[in-house]
Amino acid sequence: MALTISYFAWVREQMGVAEEVVELPVELADLTALLAWLAARDGRGALAFAEPQRIRAAIDGVMMGPRAPLVGAREIALFPPVTGG
């Protein structure tokens, strides 16, 4: 399944790209599995996703939790928690 992944803030800095289109393995069922897969691909992913619980995600523009399914997703946005002040 081809999927566009957009990276924001320090996640983008660690990954070295703002966006990429990837072909996901069919066994990746949810966001938790996606983050583990991204972390295992290379050193950049390992750094960006070393603490997956810190990552927030939106699937097709809707904020989702770590167990959100990937089936039918076209775009996933990954970013750190937003703080204000």
Commentary on this structure:
With 85 residues, the chain is α+β, with helices and mostly antiparallel strands. It has one domain: Ubiquitin-like (UB roll), CATH 3.10.20. Helix content is 28%, strand content 27%. The protein is built from three helices and five strands, in the order E-H-E-H-H-E-E-E. It has a five-stranded mixed sheet with strand order 2-1-5-3-4. Strand 3 and strand 4 form a beta hairpin. The longest helix has 11 residues. The mean pLDDT is 94.
Any descriptors?
5-stranded mixed beta sheet; 27% strand; 85 residues; alpha+beta; single chain; Ubiquitin-like (UB roll); globular
Topology summary:
Elements: E1 2-7, H1 9-15, E2 19-23, H2 31-41, H3 43-48, E3 56-59, E4 62-64, E5 75-79
In brief:
This protein has 3 helices and 5 strands, in the order βαβααβββ.
